[in-house]
Each structure stands twice: as structure tokens, then as C-alpha cells.
Amino acid sequence: xxxxxxxxxxxxxxxxxxxxxxxxxxxxxxxxxxxxxxxxxxxxxxxxxxxxxxxxxxxxxxxxxxxxxxxxxxxxxxxxxxxxxxxxxxxxxxxxxxxxxxxxxxxxxxxxxxxxxxxxxxxxxxxxxxxxxxxxxxxxxxxxxxxxxxxxxxxxxxxxxxxxxxxxxxxxxxxxxxxxxxxxxxxxxxxxxxxxxxxxxxxxxxxxxxxxxxxxxxxxxxxxxxxxxxxxxxxxxxxxxxxxxxxxxxxxxxxxxxxxxxxxxxxxxxxxxxxxxxxxxxxxxxxxxxxxxxxxxxxxxxxxxxxxxxxxxxxxxxxxxxxxxxxxxxxxxxxxxxxxxxxxxxxxxxxxxxxxxxxxxxxxxxxxxxxxxxxxxxxxxxxxxxxxxxxxxxxxxxxxxxxxxxxxxxxxxxxxxxxxxxxxxxxxxxxxxxxxxxxxxxxxxxxxxxxxxxxxxxxxxxxxxxxxxxxxxxxxxxxxxxxxxxxxxxxxxxxxxxxxxxxxxxxxxxxxxxxxxxxxxxxxxxxxxxxxxxxxxxxxxxxxxxxxxxxxxxxxxxxxxxxxxxxxxxxxxxxxxxxxx
Length: 581
Known about the structure:
Elements: H1 3-78, H2 80-83, H3 86-100, E1 104-110, E2 116-120, H4 134-142, E3 144-146, E4 158-167, E5 170-179, H5 180-188, E6 197-202, H6 219-231, E7 241-246, E8 253-261, E9 266-273, H7 274-277, H8 279-368, H9 375-404, E10 412-414, H10 416-426, H11 428-433, E11 436-442, E12 449-451, H12 453-471, E13 476-485, E14 488-495, H13 502-505, H14 525-535, E15 539-545, E16 549-557
């Protein structure tokens, strides 16, 4: 993954985290508050509808009770004998009309056989036979009876208030016909919203008032609803039941409020579309969703800006860290060069001494003259020796300058075996001074790896120098091996030095941790190595036994195309320390 993709992924991760941490509490609060408000609002609406239905329920019940009371008072005050007189009942009917308007349509007296013997009203009903009428049968059992809305003999909707009276030891019935319009108007006054309507229905599903729309499809549902309500024994005077169900006609969710009338024979039913009943709740919910959406957008925008800003800060910090790491690596490299200075100086001193000696010999030969004996041939030999030793010095200084140049992190294909041979040769003089024998065992045709050559030089040089330090001054054996395992190039550097205590093994790669004497080690070498190997997607491990030695193992992934290095010969000069001249 490139650095750009890494920082983009980091910005997305931070943005997601900020949005999650910021939006989750907002969403939870919105859900809890919305739920509590919804429950509270619905309870308030339902309580209002119960109160409204019960109020009209009581109005209808009061209306019926009032009419029944008036008929009872009329019967007690006037008496049954007088009510049978045509003139008397007409006079009473006129008085009722003047007091109550058109509520009392007519009055009549019905004998025990169901024949109306006296009548006052707009219809020709004198002598009408009511012996088979349900209201006539019911009043003889209940004494007082209010009928359902019927069409009867007149063919228009009305209902009857009947009272059983005693006239001369015989049972007579005082019948008053009440206008259907009065009760219908009381019920139609219940109008809330666009879909709210009310009506009165009996237990058989027969409408006692006229709904504002066709309710035929709802009759089976209403009958089941009233039956279920009765079975639950929740209906009674002063009670109202609320049911939420789908409307059979429209399929929409409907709210039903039911309350009993007339001792449970009738039911006041209020019906309203649930969406209409809770329309204010829907508006508040929509407003809440808009606010929540705007809040989410605001959080997302701020999270995006903050994440980008934080990612840029991290990128800048990483760049500064990388620069500092490069400086530390460079300083470590220069320190390694300093440690090699003595060996390099001795390596250069030998050929320089030879060149000085040969130059003096040439001077002596020139003083004698080139024409004597083999002086000319000897001069030629001396010049050739000077030229050879100069090339040797140039090669040594070239290697030193090549190693000491600034670290170049550019990744390229390289052969690990070549770097091992170069670093082994480079450290040979220092190893001789420490009486350390360097041996290499490198597998042929090892795969190439993708790494920075200068950084790999730093890794190998630091590990070799550390191994030499661990065996100084007693000397020992330093083995450098390469092999191939599971698509990785493995390099191990082992020594026979003092080893690393077990307690320190977990800390050796920590920055500034060192067991060397004060002033000799910075504690950065292994930390630098660890960072370089990790950057190459490699691994470095250590195994050490005190007083027996240490083995550092590096695993580097082989190049993806599997190209191998050319087979080369092992450098013999690294196998044994040379004698000083």
C-alpha cells in the first residue's frame, strides 16, 4: 500500500470513528426521546378521544333518560284515565312540542292487546296494532323500554320510549315516538380531523344513526369488536375501549373508540384513520428526522474535515519522524565508519609504505644511472609495484566513500550474497585486530530481494560490528550464512561471544537500550536495524545463550518473479585473518 493510500485509509478510519462516536449518542437520544414522546402523545390523543366519546355518550344517555323521565312524570301527574281521552292526549302532545320542539313526534295509549286506543300526532295511527312489535313485548317485561331505531308502520326512522302503566287494574302502555334526527345530530357533532366520524350501533350490528359514509364492509369487524369487548368485561357506564386495527374497506390502520349506551344495548363508536389521528405526531417525527439528518450531515462534514486535518498532521509527523530516522541511521553509519577507522588506516598504511619504499629504491637506482646492470628493468618493476599498491588504496577508499555516502532509501533488486561478501571484506581488518575469524557460507543462486542497498549495508555492518564487539578482546568465530526458506531469503549472523542475558532479549530492539559501557554504544543500532527490516516486510529474530554466543536471523521476502542471483565464488580472504606487515 502506498503512503497516499495509507493516509487516505487512516482519514477514512478516523472519520468513521468520529461519526460513530458522535452520531451514536445523538441517534440513541433521538430514538429514546422519540419513543417516549410517541407513547405520551398517543396516550394524550387516546385520552382526549375517550373523553370526547364519553361526553357524547353521556349526552345521548342523558337525552334518553330525560325523555323517559318526562314520560314517567306525565303518566304520574295526568293519570291513565285522562290519557285515554283524545282531547287530553292531544293537549299534552302540543305542550311537549312547545317545550321540546320536534323531539316528541307523537303520543299514544296502547291497551293490553296491543291496540292503540288514543293517539296524538301527525300520522293516522289510531287503532294501530302493535301486538307483534318487539318494543311492545319488551315493555311488558321491563316496565320501561327504549327501542332501537325502527321504521315501523310510518316508514321513517324513529325510536320509541314506552312506559307500562296501571289503569283501573289493567296494564296499558304509554308510547312516545322520538325524532331520530335529534340523536343523529348529537352523534354527528363528533368530528375530528378529516376522517373522524361517529355513529351508534346495536349489538346486532344495526346502525342507530346514519354514518357519513357507507359502513357496510365494516359491520362484521364492528360486531366482532363489540363481542370481544363484552367478553373482556371492560365496557360499562363511564368506560371507553380503544382498538387499533386495519379497516376492511380501505386497508388502512384505523382507530376505534367504543362506549356502551342504553345499558349496553347500544354502542357509541368513533372511527378515525390512525394517520389522521396522529397527524401531529407524524409532523413532529418528520421534523425530528430532518433535524437528525441535518445533524448527521453536520457531524459527517466536521468528521471529514477533522479526519483530513488529523491525517495531514499524522503524515507531517511521520515525515518528520522519517527524516529523524534517516538522520539517526546516517549517524549510526558514520559511527560504524569511525569504528572501522583503525582497520581502514592499517589497510591503507601497508600499500602506502610499499609505495614509499619503492619510490626510494627508484631514487637510488636513478642516482646510480639507468645504464648500469639491470637498473632500468628494476625501475620498471618498482613503478609497476607503486601502480599496483595505488590501485589497492584507491579501491579501499572507494569502498569507504561508497559506504559512508548518505543513506539512499531507494528500493531496487539486489543480491544479498554480494552485500554479505562486501561487508565481510570491509570488516576484515577490524576483525583481525579483535582476533575474530569471519567465515561465510552462502547458498548458490539465492533469489533477489527488493530492498535499499545502503540500508542493507547498514543492517549487515551493524550486526557484524556488534558480533565483533561481543567477542572482543578474547576473539572467536563469526559465521555468516544465507539460505532459502518458504519463499524467503534467510541470513543468519552467529558469534561465539559473551551472549545476551535472557532478561535483556525482550528489550534489545528498544531505542537507546544498550549493554555496552558508557560512551561506547548509543543503543540505536539494533533499533535502526529493526525499523529497516520491518519496512522491507521482513522479520528479525535473535537467539542467545550467555557465554556461548548469539545468532541473529533475518528473513526477507524474495522478489515476486523469483529471479535468482548469478552463482559466485566465496571470497577466500574473509576466511582467515591476515598477518600484519
